[in-house]
Amino acid sequence: MLMKCTGSGSGGNGYALISDDEILLIECGVPAKEMLRAIDYQTSKVAGCLISHEHGDHAKYIKQYMKYGIKCYTSDEVQERIETIYGEKTVGMNRMHVTKIGSFQVIPFQSPHDGTECDGFLIKHEKIGCLLFITDAEYCKYDFSKMGINHAMVECNYSEDYLDMESDQVKSNRVLQSHMELQTCKRLIQMINSPMLRSVGLLHLSSQNANPERFREEIAELVDCDVDVWVAEKGVERELRLEPF
Known about the structure:
Elements: E1 2-7, E2 14-18, E3 23-26, H1 32-38, E4 46-50, H2 56-59, H3 62-67, E5 72-75, H4 76-86, E6 91-93, E7 99-101, E8 104-110, E9 119-125, E10 129-134, E11 151-155, H5 169-178, H6 182-192, E12 199-203, H7 212-220, E13 228-231, E14 237-239
Parallel strand pairs: 3-4, 4-5, 5-6, 10-11, 11-12, 12-13
Antiparallel strand pairs: 1-2, 1-14, 2-3, 7-8, 8-9, 9-10
């Protein structure tokens, strides 16, 4: 299954899981025309679009997506905020329960994001196994070590040694309380690491407080050499599969 990234960061987030006959979108924080280009305008194959939370870089273009007949899915907790802000009603999902979206099975779970209702997702499909998706989370509150995670797409937003606490303490505190730091991400990867792990994608890197190559290298040191560790950037494509890379 092919994963295409149309954006990963404050400028807008969007991802597409593409199989031969079906597509699952994650986030609608980039204009629909960019996502349509990424999926070769195959809107009839789109089973749905998952939205983690209300913030514009994840949900801003929901109206555009819905105009193309794309159903947008959120947890019940996020649904009310999306409707209030954007005037669109999503398909609600129960947290910690399976929702079938086409041939995908999705389990939303709460992610700590500075008081904002936000979700990560466990996504299961016969072609990729189990994918763990977490963005805009200070940390992961659940233990997924026994889940046999095959692929991880996890926020690795900043490193504390890049933050300038003295010149902008307010902004730095907001980052600390709402996004995942490198060491926190490393602990999460260590927790889910197993012979089943095939790839790790690092999401939502800060333009000011991150170093993509350093982050990729430090994460790669934690996993087997055949695990594909990559950084999500606009235009990046990755083949997600079950056999070793």
